Amino acid sequence: MDTEHAGPEDLRMLRAAFDTGEPLGWEAVRAFEAEHGITLPEPYRTCVAEIADGCGFGPPDFGLVPLAELPDDWGDDSPARELAKPFPLTEPWLWEEDDLPDDELGPMLEPVFGHGSIVLGTDGCGMYWHLIVTGLHRGHVWNICGEGAGPFGSEFGFTTGESGFAGWVRHWAEGKPWFDAM
Fold first, then answer.
1. Does residue 109 register a pLDDT over 90?
2. Which residues make Cβ contacts (< 8 Å) with residue 49, sequence separation at least 6?
3. Which helix H or strand E contains 150, and what residues bound it?
């Protein structure tokens, strides 16, 4: 997974997957990055600038959300999003099975939902796909929901798909279920 350069094969696949999308353009992408103090990982960065900034169809189930937006079901009471702060997780965490009291768990979860990631979209029922933009998992796609969080990619054991945005889109475009290695 190369987060610094968009490979030609990945870009061809993304163009085919989002063939009806409208790009945001490089000026708007750079303005977003400057506003948030980040550089988006490739090939997502080139996809948004040149291919599609959001799309009314998957991935995920309810479509790819435009760069500066959140899914309709995100909620107004969510913590402030701070993209420049590192995403805190490096391994799956099923907090639903954690014995911590809610008053301790809540502050630990805020960074998971709000730091170091952009929301790619939702599969509904509070299940969101995030692209990590800062931290040790930069470039990886994570599924974060009310019960827990886990990274997408064959090395993490839940799927046969490749890590990163291109691997996540390719897996969807091939019609495979997200969690096909369980």
1. no
2. 23, 24, 25, 26, 28, 29
3. strand 149-151
pLDDT confidence band for 182 (50 / 70 / 90): low
Residue span of the structural domain in which 155 resides: 8-71+80-171
Reported for 158-163, long-range contacts at CB under 8 A and 24+ positions apart, including other chains, are 158/182, 162/1, 163/1, 163/139
Residue 177 lies in a domain: no
pTM of this prediction?
A: 0.94
The count of structural domains within the chain is 1
Question: Which tens digits make up the pLDDT trace of 142-165?
Answer: 999 989 999 999 999 889 999 999
Contact 151, 142 (CB under 8 A): yes
Start-end of H helices in the chain: 8-17, 26-36, 44-46, 102-114, 164-173
Q: Do the domain assignments include residue 158?
A: yes
Strand partners, 127: none
